[in-house]
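Hey, I was hoping to borrow your eyes for a little while. No rush at all, and the record is pasted right below.
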Amino acid sequence: MKGLAYGRSRARLFGVTVAAAGALTLFGGSVASAPAQHQQKLATIELNTLSIANGFPLDLGIKKGFFSAQGIEISKKVLQSGNDIVLAMANNNGDVGYVGWAPAIIGRTQGIKLQALSASDVEGTSVVDNWQNIMVKGSSSIRTPQDLAGKTIAVNALKGVGEVMIRAALKKVGVNPSSIRLVPIGFPAMRSALQNGQVDAIWAPEPFVTQALTLDNARIVMAPGPVLGKYWPVGTYVAQESWIRSNPALARGFRIAMNQSLTYAQAHPAEIRELLSAAIRDIRLPIWTTTIDMAKLAQLARYMKEYDVISTLPNLTRLVPASVSGGKTLQGTVGNRFIALRLDGRAVKSLAHGKFTFVVTDQSKTQNFMLDGPGVHKQTSVRGTGRSTWTVTLKKGVYTFRSSKRASLKNTFRVR
């Protein structure tokens, strides 16, 4: 079978496992569950995850009591890759898994009946704001994506989200994707592999991006996700259909608590940074969202088939049920003299009604970004700058985005 294999033993699967406390030591933080009200007895969910910052909304949600409020206690195990997590779940080692969409799709096409419980994270819009990139040594002769042709690149697993995105993005910029050689190396070991010349480049997420840039003088040469599309979908929380059927209340409670955690984490980045050690507190944070762009997910599946990671396309409606599907991510920007709203790089004029995530970058200390329309009123601070994220349901009608301080910074779009 491609990508995954059922034949691994439990000892092999959990040979790369460390305790949750050990994973947090990597980041320097600690998480404590909020006490349940009235000494409520909590049901334990065994959750497999990865040692990357993208999973921190769950830790913050535990700390804030979102899960205990749903009667849930989380017991975490950390594995090296999404493929390892899917294999563990196939062997009934774990109830819920935090994985990339590629391993989830592989599992689904190989008969592991995974189903998404919630969304998680998406990539950014460019090399500037993306948190998962291809990096090289500062002294490397590799300067552009085209220079990666024929080179060796480290990924955390073969036939995973990294391989698919890298090959698809290189092809999109005119590089033969078959010319590169991919080597599986765990994220924590990638910096050393790059520095000692074992590989020419590494593909890694935060906090390893910031560590490589600041401690090793590495350089970013490509952000594969943004090449494929703005806010490219990356992570999700999944469970087997059989577990969901046997535990409907737990599955629903997890979805509610996880969505609360994602929304809270995106709105309170300082609290996420408190979970990080001082040395990496200024990492590029992921964009967390409760929406799933099904069109981009379908495109990812097509890329996976093109690069022989899967042999058949998955039934995405089974992988992503109606209770968690739907939504697109819009890019809003405001400066001293401009305001814009884009979807996949194009100005927004008309949208179908439904759920949307607005990622708004406020670059001005004198203007703000306001969104008004049926059932929605959101705004950034006039004096503040930074990134704000709102997930809202747009109804039929006309919506306005504008600055409250300059009448000329105004535009509208229609929701049909």
Remarks:
- The CA atoms of residues 117 and 335 lie 37 Å apart.
- Residues 5-30 have pLDDT under 50 and may be disordered.
- The longest strand covers residues 354-362.
- The chain is about 30% helix and 30% strand.
